[in-house]
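PROTEIN DESIGN WORKSHEET
SECTION A - STRUCTURE
LENGTH: 257
C-ALPHA CELLS:
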C-alpha cells in the first residue's frame, strides 16, 4: 500500500520516536494516523475564529502555532476551509519562516493548496510569489491560473507579462472554443504593461470572440497612443472599426517595404 505523502508528513509530526520504534519494520506494515493532539485541537479552534481574533490567538502560542499550522495544512482529513486558513495564516504570522513551506504548497497535487500557497507567499515574500505565479500561469486548474495572472498584474513587470501573450490563446484557456474568464484578466494585465510597439499585438484582439478581451485590447491601444480623449465621442463599434482599419493599413505598409 502506497501512502499519500501528506499523510506521511502528518505521521512524522504527531507520532513520537518511541511510538515509531515499536512499529515492525516490514514493508507490508502500515501506520495508522494518530489522533490529533490537544495542541492541534487548540489551533483548529483558533482557525475557526474571525480573522483578527484568529491571528491574535495563533500569535500568542508562538512557534508552536507554526508546527501546528503546517501539520493541519498537510492533513487531508481536515476540512478544506481549515487547511486554507492554516496556509494563509502561515504567511501572515510567520512570513520569513514559512516561505519555503509555502513554496512547497504551490507544487501540491491539490489545486486549493497550490492556490492558498500562492496567496500566502504574496504576503510572506513577494519575489518568491512572483516566481510561483509565472509557473502557475500554466497550471491545470483554472482558478490557480487566474490567481497567478492577477498576481503578475499586481506585483509583476512588463518582462514578467511577456509570457501572457502565449497564454491568452492557449487551448487550456478555452472550453469548447468558448473563451474562459481568465482571458480578460490576461488582456487587462497585458494592457497595464503595454508600451509603444505593442499596438499591432493588441489590434489583433479587437475582434476577439470575447467582448471583454476586445474592450481591454482597445483600452491598451488608446492608452499607448494617448487617444482616449479623442475617441470619447465614438461608440464601441466605431472605435473597433477605426483601429481595425488602422491595423490593416499598418500591415499593408509593412509588407510593401
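SECTION B - SEQUENCE
RESIDUE ASSIGNMENT:
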Amino acid at each position: 500500500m502506497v501512502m499519500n505523502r501528506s499523510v506521511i508528513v502528518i505521521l512524522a509530526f504527531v507520532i513520537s520516536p518511541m511510538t515509531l520504534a515499536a512499529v515492525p519494520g516490514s514493508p507490508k506494515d502500515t501506520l495508522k494516523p494518530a489522533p490529533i493532539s490537544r495542541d492541534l485541537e487548540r489551533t483548529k479552534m483558533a482557525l475557526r475564529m474571525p480573522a483578527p481574533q484568529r491571528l491574535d490567538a495563533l500569535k500568542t502560542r508562538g512557534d508552536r502555532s507554526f508546527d501546528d499550522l503546517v501539520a493541519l495544512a498537510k492533513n487531508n482529513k481536515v476540512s478544506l476551509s481549515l487547511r486554507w486558513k492554516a496556509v494563509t495564516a502561515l504567511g501572515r504570522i510567520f512570513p520569513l519562516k514559512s516561505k519555503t513551506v509555502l513554496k512547497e504548497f504551490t507544487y501540491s497535487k491539490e489545486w486549493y493548496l497550490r492556490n492558498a500557497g500562492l496567496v500566502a507567499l504574496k504576503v510572506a515574500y513577494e519575489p518568491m510569489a512572483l516566481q510561483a505565479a509565472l509557473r502557475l500561469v500554466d497550471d491545470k486548474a483554472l482558478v490557480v491560473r487566474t490567481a497567478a495572472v492577477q498576481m503578475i498584474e499586481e506585483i509583476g513587470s512588463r518582462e514578467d507579462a511577456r509570457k501572457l501573450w502565449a497564454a491568452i490563446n492557449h487551448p487550456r484557456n478555452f472550453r469548447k472554443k468558448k473563451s474562459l474568464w481568465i482571458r480578460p484578466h490576461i488582456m487587462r494585465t497585458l494592457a497595464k504593461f503595454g508600451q509603444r510597439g505593442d499596438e499591432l499585438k493588441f489590434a489583433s484582439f479587437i475582434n476577439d470572440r470575447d467582448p471583454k478581451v476586445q474592450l481591454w485590447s482597445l483600452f491598451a491601444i488608446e492608452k499607448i497612443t494617448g487617444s482616449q480623449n479623442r475617441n470619447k465621442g465614438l461608440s464601441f463599434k466605431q472605435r473597433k472599426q477605426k483601429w481595425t482599419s488602422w491595423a490593416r493599413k499598418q500591415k499593408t505598409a509593412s509588407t510593401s517595404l
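SECTION C - NOTES
The radius of gyration is 25 Å.
The first helix runs from residue 5 to 14.
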